[in-house]
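Quick question, first post here. What does this chain look like in 3D?
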Amino acid sequence: PSSTLEVEVYPNPSSGEINILIGEYDTGADAYVKLFDVNGKLVLKESILDRHHRIQTGSIPSGVYTYQIEIGNATNSGKVVVQN
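> Answer (accepted):
Ran it through. Tokens below.
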């Protein structure tokens, strides 16, 4: 069974950097953040190593993206706007 993570993603809209602040989670679990474009294409996948993760957005085209954060069986998703 999956559970929902408590996650804060800011700033939104973002220019240059997206910050992800994660609540309590199992630090031994595999942890990833993925960004998908409006067509559902994966544009970024990064490992999350601690509760405060930063994504540099300078190489990502401006637009609306869906993020998906997976830590073990827990997930969180939402939308973020990148303005470069």
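The chain is about 0% helix and 55% strand.
The chain has a mean pLDDT of 93.
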